[in-house]
Design goal:
Aminopeptidase, 2 domains, alpha+beta
Length: 286
């Protein structure tokens, strides 16, 4: 039902939505729904027809912003549907301990951008969505010794340390411990469809990558190389090995997201055959 509405909106608007439906299915798969205490999906119906949807996605602990994206059937817009859904989402946010919320909109969506401007949310960052269109598997011989090791719960602190290096989350020891307590552990992430690999060379950890397996599509996230190993081609090697992993799992398409301002990563992805397909803007409510 949600997928049908999404397809209708995408055909009409020629923009992108980031609803994370496959990720959420992985989260809820095999769980006892009677124990779910938080509501993440909000739907608006006209009779039996779904005409509006807004979803909350939570990727980490209390210090990780909630991400919100939604849509309204083209024939039911400007009738208060989105306003009603947003009030419900804001009420749910107030019941949680998350400090901030990110509202997402495709840069080309005039309606989405206008709605967010009306909320008073401040611009946070933007990401390009990129899809693999031309595969160029070129790894220098001396980089073929790189291996992927699947992360376990014992690697959680190392993963957090690398995230802090790559994405600028500089926290003190006490704050780090609080984040670690709320962090989704690697083995839990794998049950949700996201597998974290530590990249090693000569039995030393040099970086990491997160691979998401969804029906028909594979996603590459959180790729990074530790500072002391940069400038040696390891980033390209990790990326190409990640592509191979996803191809082995029969991913029909492969995508990733990259911060607009990360010019070095953007050039790397383009050189390996990825093409920008859309730009998602993130706005923060505190």
């Amino acid at each position: 039902m949600i997928n049908r509405l999404q397809e209708r909106c995408l055909r009409e608007d020629q923009t992108t939505l980031k609803l994370e439906l496959d990720y959420k299915l992985g989260v809820y798969s095999g769980t006892d729904r009677s124990g779910i205490r938080q509501i993440n999906e909000y739907m608006y119906f006209d009779g039996h027809e779904l005409i509006g949807y807004m979803g909350i996605c939570e990727f980490g602990g209390a210090d990780t912003p909630l991400e919100v994206n939604g849509m309204v059937h083209p024939e039911y817009r400007r009738q208060g549907v989105f306003d009603t859904l947003s009030r419900l989402v804001l009420a749910e946010w107030s019941r949680r301990s998350s400090k901030s919320m990110l509202l997402l909109s495709d840069r080309k969506s005039e309606a989405g951008q206008a709605f967010i401007q009306g909320t008073g949310a401040e611009y946070h960052h933007s990401e390009h969505e990129m899809y693999l269109r031309v595969y160029r598997p070129v790894i220098h011989d001396d980089l073929k010794g790189i291996v992927f090791r699947k992360a376990t719960n014992a690697d959680a602190r190392e993963i957090h340390r690398q995230n802090a290096i790559y994405f600028g989350d500089k926290l003190g020891e006490e704050e780090t411990n609080e984040v670690m307590e709320g962090m989704i552990l690697p083995e839990e992430e794998e049950q949700r469809g996201m597998t974290i690999y530590l990249a090693e060379a000569d039995q030393q950890v040099i970086g990491k990558v997160h691979l998401q397996h969804s029906p028909g599509i594979g996603g590459i996230y959180g790729l990074g190389v530790l500072p002391e190993y940069r400038g040696k081609g390891y980033g390209r090697a990790i990326l190409l090995k990640a592509i191979d992993k996803l191809k082995e799992s029969s991913a029909g398409e492969i995508m990733l997201q990259v911060a607009v301002e990360n010019a070095n990563a953007l050039r790397l992805y383009q050189s390996c055959g990825f093409v920008e397909t859309s730009t998602m803007d993130y706005y923060e409510l505190k």
